[in-house]
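Repro:
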Amino acid sequence: MHLLEVKNLHVEVDGKKILNGLELSVGSGSVHALMGPNGSGKSTLAHVLAGKDDYVVTQGEVLLDGEDILALPPEERAAKGLFLAFQYPFEIPGVATMTFLRTALNEVAGRLGIEQEMLRRGVNVGFSGGEKKRNEILQMALLQPRLCVLDETDSGLDIDALKTVADGVNALRSPERAFIVITHYQRLLNYIVPDVVHVLSRGRIVKTGDKQLALDLEATGYAQYQEEMA
């Protein structure tokens, strides 16, 4: 049994169909990269997995350890081991990061270059883009989820911050944990090397391969897959 199984998933937002029969299986211990052009449905899938409001599932199932989680609220999905690292992490004024995580976190925070002063600030308040992403990897390291969904974690990061975030993710790779890495660009996959690469176009996975597929996409782009689905 796979850790995650997405079966015939159809999703609408404001009456517009975004996902169109998407199928995806992710086993424990694996890293799956999900790539595709803007508007293909990558972030929609991440938000549906996490239970974000405003996404209407009209058909299909999302199974975590064989249990359909679509009816569960976000906090119950998180308790079952699902973690979403946002493309644009939210600020939570008034809640210190130290309080949010309930521990001093010295060792893990130090590895990620997160100073104690950052832990005392409101969650993500006043953080740079890179600091927000490192803070999410810190949360992931402490919460130890079984399925980590990284929604364009490389967005807005310079090369040094990208390497730091990738190092934090790679340190969490284990036979019990799986990752879905959503990205536009192959650059991130130089540092977080995937086992499987999927191409998403018009709400469906249209191509699956190994890490070479990401290199091919870097050279040729997504046009051929968009044309095939037209």
